[in-house]
Amino acid sequence: MALTNETGTILRNEQVGPNLYVMEVESPDIAGRVAPGQFVHTRLPGMEGHILRRPFSVYTADAVTGRMEILYQVVGFGSDHMTTLVPGQQVENIGPVGHGWTLPEDARRVLIVGGGVGAAPVYLLAKQAVEAEREVDVVLGARTKDALVCLPRYEALGARQVRCATDDGTFGHVGFCTGVVEELLAAGEYDYAAVCGPEPLMKIVAQQTADASLPCQVSLERRMACGVGACLSCVVDTVDGKKRACVDGPVFWREEVVW
């Protein structure tokens, strides 16, 4: 899929949880072509002195309205500056970038796992699976109830069930969402799993699904400079050697990754 360098207009940029924000951007070309699991490489206004763009997974996209959303967490200078941007300002995006999720045509029962902001990159996949009339179970994990900012969207999808876990026990299962995954794998047979979140979480779920002989894909996060495969700053160790998270991923099959 060809990349586009598109200037988009910010429509909304609001806080939705603790250090969590959603930015809605009018970007018709990218929003109309992005596949679940792909991302955009973004240049922010007011940061012209910083050469490197920033990668953001696409949370939602609507080809009809030409709008897409990005869920981001404030972790440093760049994301803190991002919170100051207001509707009407413009961002420059390269996208859609990378290989996204591969939902097998014969997968009737699907397990979706999103930890923290990792709930955003799997949302479009869950939507795709529900619309294809698959049975979809979703597991979301966060530190606290207030950080489960994607939950209302997932509940509105019409998935078979949406289970949650919080580290502090303020909502759902007490502890990590891997506990819920273990329960679901023991109780039912799935045909495909997709997981995105902190790498320790993905490593555990990768092992859990391997033990259950369940095909599983993971979406890996890496620091990126160019975002188009030229700089080799985002390499992932795989069984076939080093691959680039930006263009060879960010989604990989579990067995490809050297954990």
UniProtKB/TrEMBL annotation:
- At the top level of its lineage, which domain of life is listed? Bacteria
Residue ranges of domain FAD-binding FR-type in the record: 3-103
Q: Which UniProt keywords apply?
A: 2Fe-2S, Electron transport, FAD, Flavoprotein, Iron, Iron-sulfur, Metal-binding, Pyrimidine biosynthesis, Transport
Recorded hits in InterPro entries, A to Z, give: Cbr1-like_FAD-bd_dom, Cyt_c3_hydrogenase_gsu, Dihydroorotate_DH_ele_sf, Dihydroorotate_DH_Fe-S-bd, Dihydroorotate_DHASE_ETsu, FAD-bd_FR_type, FNR_nucleotide-bd, OxRdtase_FAD/NAD-bd
Alphabetized PROSITE patterns for the sequence: FAD_FR
Name one matching Pfam family. FAD_binding_6
Can you quote the record's cofactor note?
Binds 1 [2Fe-2S] cluster per subunit.
Mention one GO biological process in which this protein takes part, according to its record: 'de novo' UMP biosynthetic process
Listed cofactors: [2Fe-2S] cluster; FAD
> What are the GO MF terms of this UniProt record?
2 iron, 2 sulfur cluster binding; electron transfer activity; flavin adenine dinucleotide binding; metal ion binding; oxidoreductase activity
The positions annotated for binding FAD are 54-57, 71-73
Q: Does the keyword Metal-binding apply?
A: yes
Q: In which pathway does it act?
A: Pyrimidine metabolism; UMP biosynthesis via de novo pathway; orotate from (S)-dihydroorotate (NAD(+) route): step 1/1
Residues in a coiled coil are: none
The UniProt annotation places [2Fe-2S] cluster binding at 226, 231, 234, 246
Looking up Gene3D superfamilies in the UniProt record yields: Dihydroorotate dehydrogenase, electron transfer subunit, Nucleotide-binding domain of ferredoxin-NADP reductase (FNR) module, Translation factors
What does this protein's UniProt record list under function?
Answer: Responsible for channeling the electrons from the oxidation of dihydroorotate from the FMN redox center in the PyrD type B subunit to the ultimate electron acceptor NAD(+).
Known PANTHER family for this protein? DIHYDROOROTATE DEHYDROGENASE B (NAD(+)), ELECTRON TRANSFER SUBUNIT (PTHR43513), DIHYDROOROTATE DEHYDROGENASE B (NAD(+)), ELECTRON TRANSFER SUBUNIT-RELATED (PTHR43513:SF3)
Subunit structure as annotated in this protein's UniProt entry: Heterotetramer of 2 PyrK and 2 PyrD type B subunits.
Family the entry assigns: Belongs to the PyrK family.
Name the chain's protein: Dihydroorotate dehydrogenase B (NAD(+)), electron transfer subunit
Instruction: List the source organism.
Output: Candidatus Aveggerthella stercoripullorum
Q: Which gene encodes it?
A: pyrK
